[in-house]
Design a protein that fits this description.
single chain; 70 residues; mainly alpha; Cell division protein FtsN; transmembrane
Length: 70
């Protein structure tokens, strides 16, 4: 059996539709990435490290973490 004969214009049209489909898919993907990026920035909570608690020191004692004099 022979393949169905189609005019060359139909093949060209199929390639054009395929190309536009790829372009639309890429645009949709980029739009989704941009949307999620905006959502992430909107609801982002700034990360703050808690201050390390220090024990009170007696007068005359060096603070923890400071080098001791000789």
């Amino acid at each position: 059996m022979k393949e169905e004969q189609r005019p060359r214009g139909a093949e060209r049209e199929e390639r054009r539709v395929f190309a536009w489909g790829i372009v639309a898919a890429v645009i949709a993907l980029l739009g989704a990435l941009a949307y999620f990026h905006v959502l992430q920035k909107r609801f982002e909570v700034p990360v703050e490290l808690p201050a390390t608690p220090t024990a009170p020191t007696a007068p005359g004692e060096p603070a923890p973490g400071t080098p001791r004099g000789r």
